[in-house]
Amino acid sequence: KSSTAEFVRFLDISIGSFPELELYFSLSCELKFISKTELKEAEILLDEVKKLLYSFQFSLKKRGQEQVRSN
């Protein structure tokens, strides 16, 4: 039980890192380490990962709430 709660917390921390990643991608483009095309590709991938993590986290929370109700 606590391991699921801990994992949900880990996902919270991971999701909280997205703005930092977005900043690093933008900065990398401004400093010409990556092209604007690569920046756009990275942003698209980041959005996909965000959606997956949010959905996964939601399903874990929902499953946890259902288990509490059944007990």
Major sheet, described briefly?
none
Report the sheet-strand fraction: under 5%
- Total number of β-strand segments? 0
H/E series: HHH
* Estimated radius of gyration: 17 Å
Proportion of helical residues: over 70%
Query: Which structural class do you get from the secondary structure elements?
Result: mainly alpha
Task: Determine the N-to-C terminus distance.
Answer: 12 Å
- Let me know the average pLDDT: 90
User: Helical segment tally?
Assistant: 3
Question: Regions with pLDDT < 50 over 5+ consecutive residues?
Answer: none
Shape: elongated
Please provide a written account of the structure.
By secondary structure, the protein is mainly alpha-helical. It has three helices and no strands. The longest helix has 35 residues, at 36-70. The two termini are 12 Å apart.
Key features?
elongated, mainly alpha
Give a brief description:
This protein has 71 residues and is an all-alpha fold. The chain is 89% helix and 0% strand.
